[in-house]
Amino acid sequence: MVGVDREGVAAGRPQFVTTEPFAPGGTVVLDESAARHMRVLRLGAGAVVGIRDGQGAIGAGQLVLLTKSQAHIEITEVSQVEPLPAVHLLVPVADRDRMLWLAEKAAELGATSWRPVLWRRSRSVSPRGEGVNFQGKVRTRMEGALAQSEGAWLPQPFPEANLERAILAAPRGDRVVLDPAGAPLVGPQSTPLRQPLVIAVGPEGGIERDELADLECAGFRRVSLGPTILRFETAAIAALSMARTSFGTSSLPDTDADDRQEFP
């Protein structure tokens, strides 16, 4: 798992994610969803829960007030977890349910960022995952996965973009695109991965030749996960897992974070 703190301040406790900053002695107010979950768990005043903000802060606190729509947590302990080496995902705009499943796994494996790309073949998918409402669902799934896996860092979610904008917004560094004809991603015949790493995953049916050419012109190199053809969500998880294993657990800053651009 990523950012596991089983020996830390929140080990073995029900976990919740908040967007509020928190510090020892302060109080965090969790939303209706968290309050509902606490009632299902039959938590009462004084129960100890884990809190994390998805930005590296993890803590523990006591439930002091539980209403139908809110849960008030008094923070007792806080610690900070350093981010893992940066691995950014460019995922295809695709079937909604499969994208949501992938979002959960990306959070569990500690992807640094998540950018859906509207490939040419993405346009034939229906229903596909895009739009503001879908972005909210992605965020909710990621938060749930982060809590269950006791992670510390949420992937930074970006809205969907066409390929040109996605390339422009991608961080500088090692850039790879998954392609069956590419060199192995890892192994004795592979090029060592460098940080930050950007992994581009194509849509069902593959990436069009001109799209692949655009990626290569932007510094992406083709890499393969093996001799079989994988579904996009399987390929993304396999590549992210291999990258995490290759980099190990050392934490280094994303030196190119300031070079990242954001598009509406």
Radius of gyration: 20 Å
Poorly predicted segments: 1-10, 251-264
Number of strands: 12
- Which percent band covers the strand fraction? 25-35%
Shape: elongated
Largest sheet: 7 strands, parallel
State the order of secondary-structure elements, H for helix, E for strand. Answer: EEHEEEEHEHEEHEEHEH
Give the averaged pLDDT, no decimals.
89
Range of helix content: 25-40%
In angstroms, what separates the terminal alpha carbons? 32 Å
Helical segment tally? 6
Q: Classify the secondary structure makeup into a structural class.
A: alpha/beta
Oligomer: single chain
Explained architecture:
Helices cover about 25% and strands about 25% of the residues. With about 260 residues, it is α/β, with parallel strands linked by helices. It is built from six helices and twelve strands. The strands form two sheets. Strands 6, 7, 8, 9, 10, 11 and 12 form a seven-stranded parallel β-sheet that branches. Helix 3 (about 130-150) links the parallel strand 7 and strand 8.
Q: SSE layout and pairings?
A:
Layout lengths: L14 E3 L9 E4 L1 H9 L7 E5 L4 E10 L4 E10 L6 E6 L3 H13 L4 E6 L13 H18 L6 E2 L3 E2 H7 L4 E11 L12 E4 L8 H9 L2 E5 L7 H16 L17
